[in-house]
């Protein structure tokens, strides 16, 4: 049974593709005529944890090893505090300062607080960062899937066996799965997927910490130092500096989720006020991730010392306990499948909102078809041709880029470095100053600008480190030849 639903109402960036026609007297709508939001502090916290605790958590032991106990721990805590503070500032800017109207995306918040030019700059940085993250997640998920096959191969055939594994089939498989998941209409329908992904992030982080802790307790922990890796044979002062720059960037960017904060906040119920609930969700999400980051970074460093691996799970080898390492990699894959959608939805919504305004009478853009898959009305699939074509094309291009650019993680680090400072620090601070009319050279203005400049310097250092790493990767570039 197929029927279509007219969709001529103006769409918000995260609500495009809903296919809901508002009937006269319908009470199931929000203050702007859109469907009532159902998000709570717990669903928002799940979205935050899914976005923040990425597979990058497993590289924190390496980051702490480059900085040492003192600088490593201070850096973890410092960026936790900065991210929590600026996220709270951004939450207060969700509604327009003059009209109190909801803003459905980060770039709209910037437009209504800082003007059109800043809106364009924000959009360019935000979507480049989101698209880069999606391609990077495709690569990272394929690495974990290949690691599972490699681990099983060693277990069955012995540690001396040849177990080279290609990543390409796994990238293609992930792309096929994301083709289906990308048809989830919008952020409001991602709660269950985000909760599952958040649980998985706890799972693989806990496995990594547990294995590292067991290594420390057994007395196999390696040598650590207050200043981290030491200059000597095989490590020059310049190499040490580049590593420290990358470590700063790694830790700073591990906390960022501002590029999707507004979209998450727009899923919350209107009562109590969204900014109050979002601030509490920020505290829950950042506090939770900081605890896991401290455990992964510090316990991992204690276990592996100055030779800490880039991926905590691979530091235990592909051998025993192979089943536990496999479980950790499976959890990474499931988490990244959900995180892919969390980062993709703002991109999907932006294009669909633009198309709805450009061609409001087009049936391809506005009409939806409901396909009942069984007799129950609850089990229906909604098809919109724009959503089907555009999102499928996006997933295919992202998968192809991941296969063509095996060194894309270095490009992603560069995009992350470029996006961290403006999205997480600069725009929230400038909007807060503008909204609250904070005067120049006042104590509060100076404090905010100090945070601004500190994070800018870190971002510049991380950009330099990522460019240096990118230069090394290009020298060994072989398209479609990614193997472990």
From TrEMBL:
The chain crosses the membrane at residues 41-62, 68-91, 190-214, 283-303, 323-343, 385-405, 411-429, 450-470. Residues 37-469 form the Amino acid transporter transmembrane domain. GO terms for biological process: amino acid transport. The keyword Cell inner membrane does not apply. Its main location: membrane. One of its GO terms (cellular component) is membrane. It is found in: Membrane. Keywords: Amino-acid transport, Membrane, Transmembrane, Transmembrane helix, Transport. It holds the Pfam family Aa_trans. PANTHER family: OS05G0424000 PROTEIN-RELATED (PTHR48017). This is Amino acid transporter transmembrane domain-containing protein.
């Amino acid at each position: 049974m197929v029927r279509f639903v007219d969709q001529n109402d103006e769409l918000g960036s995260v609500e495009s593709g809903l296919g809901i026609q508002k009937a006269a007297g319908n009470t199931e709508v929000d203050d702007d005529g859109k469907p009532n939001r159902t998000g709570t502090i717990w669903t928002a916290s799940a979205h935050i944890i899914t976005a923040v605790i990425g597979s990058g958590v497993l590289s924190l032991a390496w980051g702490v090893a480059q900085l040492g106990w003192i600088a490593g721990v201070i850096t973890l805590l410092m960026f936790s505090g900065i991210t929590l503070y600026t996220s709270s500032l951004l939450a207060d800017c969700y509604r327009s300062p003059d009209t109190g109207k909801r803003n459905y995306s980060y770039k709209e918040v910037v437009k209504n607080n800082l003007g059109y030019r800043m809106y364009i700059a924000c959009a360019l940085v935000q979507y480049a960062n989101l698209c880069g993250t999606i391609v990077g997640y495709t690569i990272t998920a394929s690495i974990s899937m290949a690691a599972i096959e490699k681990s099983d191969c060693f277990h069955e055939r012995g540690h001396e066996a040849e177990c080279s594994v290609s990543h390409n089939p796994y990238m293609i498989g992930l792309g096929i799965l994301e083709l289906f998941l990308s048809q989830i209409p919008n952020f409001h329908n991602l709660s269950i997927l985000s909760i599952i992904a958040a649980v998985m992030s706890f799972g693989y982080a806990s496995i990594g910490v547990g294995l590292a802790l067991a290594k420390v307790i057994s007395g196999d922990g390696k040598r650590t130092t207050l200043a981290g890796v030491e200059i000597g044979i095989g490590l020059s002062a310049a190499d040490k500096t580049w590593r420290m720059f990358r470590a700063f960037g790694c830790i700073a960017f591990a906390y960022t989720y501002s590029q999707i904060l507004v979209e998450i906040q727009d899923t919350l119920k209107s009562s109590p006020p969204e900014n109050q609930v979002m601030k509490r969700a920020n505290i829950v999400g950042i506090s939770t991730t900081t605890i896991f980051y401290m455990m992964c970074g510090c316990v991992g460093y204690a276990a592996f010392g100055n030779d800490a691996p880039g991926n905590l799970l691979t530091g235990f080898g592909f051998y025993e306990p192979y089943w536990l390492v496999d479980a950790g990699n499976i959890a990474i894959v499931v988490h990244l499948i959900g995180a892919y959608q969390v980062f993709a939805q703002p991109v999907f919504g932006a294009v669909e909102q633009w198309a709805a305004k450009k061609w409001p009478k087009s049936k391809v853009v506005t009409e939806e078809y409901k396909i009942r898959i069984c007799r129950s009305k609850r089990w229906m699939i909604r098809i919109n041709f724009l959503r089907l074509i555009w999102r499928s094309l996006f997933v295919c291009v992202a998968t192809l880029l991941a296969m063509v650019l095996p060194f894309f993680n270095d490009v992603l680090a560069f995009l992350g470095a470029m996006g961290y400072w403006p999205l997480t620090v600069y725009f929230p601070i400038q909007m807060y100053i503008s909204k609250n009319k904070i005067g120049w050279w006042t104590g509060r203005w100076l404090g905010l600008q100090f945070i601004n400049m500190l994070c800018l310097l870190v971002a510049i250092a991380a950009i330099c480190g990522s460019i240096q790493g990118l230069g090394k990767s290009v020298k060994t570039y072989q398209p479609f030849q990614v193997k472990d």
